[in-house]
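Hi R.,

Here's the chain you asked about this morning:
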Amino acid sequence: MWGGGSPQETKYDTLSGREREVLKLLADGLIVKEIASLLNLSVKTVEAHKYNLMRKLDLHNKTDLVKYALHKKLINFPAMT
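And here is the predicted structure, written out as tokens:
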């Protein structure tokens, strides 16, 4: 029997809008200092978002965040020529 509730929430669904924005910028190759400047945030705030991303997504480093962003199609991998 099918449940009458909404679809199951994914780990990505638990991220705030700002965390999603930071994830995309990290995956695009920006460093924390660049993201802080771009978003008018302190470096510590961006570091906190990065930490929360890794905790919520159960990832352990920036490479894992990039892989996750590729999997979620948040960024496109350029075609090799």
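One quick note: Residues 24 and 74 are 6 Å apart (CA to CA).

Cheers,
M.
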